């Protein structure tokens, strides 16, 4: 099967113009088919503040009210997505930037939660592999913003880590998919302040032990849960590591590789 | 040759949520291949004001400084484009929303003008028919935001009327293209205040006469110049008229049709 890299780039890289430019240069040169899923960064929060929209948080999650949804749609699917696509075009990488509504590639429903209303947050229902295969047949590079839709005209704010995982899973029937979570750290660290403490590989048993020993940080846990779920659903490898070492993450010479 | 409708929808319809919803319902049902090019509307200006970005105008044209470019990219390629795409998906119209940077479909250069610096405004260099043919082979409906790029990583604000004209021209070698400019008026009017004064068809000779008699409003002149240029470059028909009568514009039973 043909190789496909599904790469998620985190918010801290996106907020740093120079880091983003460096990452884009590396990503542009990755050979073969690749999908970049980008997060949001802090621009949306800053714009919401400027516009006087109060940002409500529940359990560390932002509530996406109608005005906030408008802003995240503008920032994620507009500014960030098109800035990355234009930068890739400058490197002769003919990328296509999309939201989940485009080609109906990712449909979702508004999150149902009895305790809290998270607003216009979407949980994914389906990835449209037919549309994605058609696009990937002609375009080696897709850049996907974390905005989905419910099929009834409603756009929804959706977690970029989850989008990367769901895309990787859905496409693993036709491609040999490697899922890579890129951020500003070296990988999963034993000591969060020390990049040299990166754990090279984690099996399910080791994951249980690391959790029991309280070594894995709260922010890393959902990524690792996603990673094991993805592996269980047919993805060949999941790697977590430094965006500036993307080449070495792909060749598994850097970062943390999650294995079954 | 296969029929292709290239339809430009103006800013006043986009600003009116109900009018836009009505238009989207009609557009979704247009059979065959179709490209919708949308303008910007007033949201970008409102956001720029909120953010305290002074809007400079020269000869009635907005100067697109770096901050304004950021905002128009967010609003046009993000909010408006994805809102229209999601609304089309709700009508089972599997649309793909794009900027000129996506798939490198429209490349441009920053406008060079000795008298004024218009900022990040793009004049079109090329339409990438290869990318567009590939996309149209699988997706009947493309929705295009008036943002282009210069191939060096710079996004550019570009006139939507001109984008529609250039797309129509470039695609006329492979499709039988009908170019339709939709707005809130019935067409080209003898009396701008009276929709019943719509001129059904205009030939080049009639256009000269209407100009000499001062019957054509200043805002309509560039549209008509675009229309005749497009006809001279291979487009089968150009029609100008009311967005809510799109079906009748397509069948040329309403609006003003420009003929050679």
Tell me about this structure.
The structure is a homodimer of 260-residue chains. With 260 residues, chain A is α/β, with parallel strands linked by helices. The first copy, chain A, has one domain: Carbamate kinase. Helix content of chain A is 38%, strand content 24%. Chain A has nine helices and 14 strands. Chain A has an eight-stranded mixed β-sheet with strand order 5-8-2-1-11-13-14-12, with helices on both faces. In chain A, strands 3-4 form a two-stranded antiparallel ribbon. A two-stranded antiparallel ribbon of chain A has the order 6-7. In chain A, α3 crosses α4 and α6 runs parallel beside α8. The longest helix of chain A is centred in the first third of the chain and has 25 residues. Chain A is globular, with a radius of gyration of 18 Å. At the A-B interface, α4, β5 and α5 of A face α4, β5 and α5 of B.
Helices, strands, pairings?
Two copies of one chain form a homodimer.
Chain A: E1 2-9, H1 11-15, H2 17-28, E2 33-38, H3 43-50, E3 57-58, E4 61-62, H4 66-90, E5 95-98, E6 106-110, E7 122-127, H5 129-138, E8 141-144, E9 147-149, E10 155-157, H6 160-171, E11 175-183, E12 201-202, H7 204-212, H8 221-232, E13 237-242, H9 246-250, E14 256-258
Parallel strand pairs in A: 1-2, 1-11, 2-8, 5-8, 11-13, 12-14
Antiparallel strand pairs in A: 3-4, 6-7, 9-10, 13-14
Helix pairs in contact in A: 3-4, 6-8
Keywords:
homodimer, 260 residues, alpha/beta, Carbamate kinase, eight-stranded mixed beta sheet, two-stranded antiparallel ribbon, 9 helices, 38% helix, 24% strand, globular
């Amino acid at each position: 099967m043909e190789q496909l890299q599904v790469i998620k780039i985190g918010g801290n890289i996106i907020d740093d113009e120079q880091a983003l430019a460096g990452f884009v240069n590396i990503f542009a040169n990755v050979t073969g088919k690749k999908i970049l899923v980008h997060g949001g960064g802090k621009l949306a929060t800053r714009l919401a503040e400027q516009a006087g929209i109060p940002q409500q948080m529940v359990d560390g999650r932002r509530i996406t009210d109608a005005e906030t949804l408008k802003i995240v749609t503008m920032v994620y699917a507009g500014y960030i997505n098109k800035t990355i696509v234009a930068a890739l075009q400058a490197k002769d990488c003919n990328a296509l930037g999309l939201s989940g509504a485009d080609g109906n590639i990712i449909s979702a429903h508004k999150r149902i939660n009895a305790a809290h209303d998270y607003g216009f947050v979407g949980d994914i229902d389906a990835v449209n592999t037919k549309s994605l295969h058609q696009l990937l047949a002609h375009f080696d590079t897709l850049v996907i913003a974390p905005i989905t839709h419910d099929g009834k005209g409603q756009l929804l704010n959706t977690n970029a880590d989850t989008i990367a995982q769901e895309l990787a899973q859905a496409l693993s029937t036709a491609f040999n998919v490697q899922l890579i979570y890129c951020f500003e750290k070296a990988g999963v660290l034993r000591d969060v302040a020390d990049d040299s403490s990166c754990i090279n590989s984690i099996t399910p048993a080791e994951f249980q032990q690391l959790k029991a020993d309280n070594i894995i940080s709260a922010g890393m846990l959902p990524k690792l849960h996603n990673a094991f779920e993805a592996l269980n659903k047919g993805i060949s490898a999941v790697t977590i590591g430094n965006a500036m070492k993307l080449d070495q993450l792909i060749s598994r010479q850097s970062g943390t590789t999650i294995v079954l």
